[in-house]
Amino acid sequence: DVKVTQSSRYLVKRTGEKVFLECVQDMDHENMFWYRQDPGLGLRLIYFSYDVKMKEKGDIPEGYSVSREKKERFSLILESASTNQTSMYLCASSLLLGYTEAFFGQGTRLTVV
Amino acid sequence: AQTVTQSQPEMSVQEAETVTLSCTYDTSESDYYLFWYKQPPSRQMILVIRQEAYKQQNATENRFSVNFQKAAKSFSLKISDSQLGDAAMYFCAYRKTGNQFYFGTGTSLTVIP
Hints:
A: four-stranded antiparallel sheet; 11 strands; B: 12 strands; globular
C-alpha cells in the first residue's frame, strides 16, 4: 500500500516563527503536493513538485515555500507564521502520468497563536 | 485554471437509503480523469471511485457508482444502501494527466440512523 506520512498531526506555533511541515511517501511517486483545507473552501493547492528540486506554485503560494531535495520527501515551509495560516495542511503524492489518483497523508492541523 | 463545483455543502440520507452527490467541472480538454474522495471526521482522505473521461461506461465500486455526463461536464456520485460509516466529507476532483488535481469545496454527508 502507498503510504504518505506527515511528520505531525497537530502543531501549535507562535506568530513569526518559521515552521516546517514534512511529508514522506514510500511509492517512488514523481508528483507531490501541498494543499490547505479550510471549511467552505475545499482543498487549495499551495505548491506542487513533479521531480526532485522542481517546484511549481499553486493557487495560494504567498507566505509559503517548499523544498524537495529527495524524491520521497516534500517539505512545506512557513517563513514567518501568521494567524491566517491556521489551517489543516494535507500532503499528497501521485504518479506523474497515467490513470492514477493522489494518495494523501493524515493531515497536519496547524494553529498559529 | 480548471474549476470543480460542488453545489451541495451539506446532504443527509436515511440509513439504507440512496443519496446522490453532485459535481460539475469546467474544462476544454477531452482526456482527463475524475475522482471522488471521502474524508471521514478526523481521518485520512481516501479514494472512493474514479473515472476516465474517454470511457463511456460509468464506474462502479460496490455500493458506489457515478453518473458521468461528459457533454454536460457532470460527475455525480450515487451511494446505495447508505451506512453509518458513509458519513464524511466528500470531494470531487479533476485531473489532466501529469498535472495537478483540482478539488471542489466538498459535500458533508450525514447518515441518519
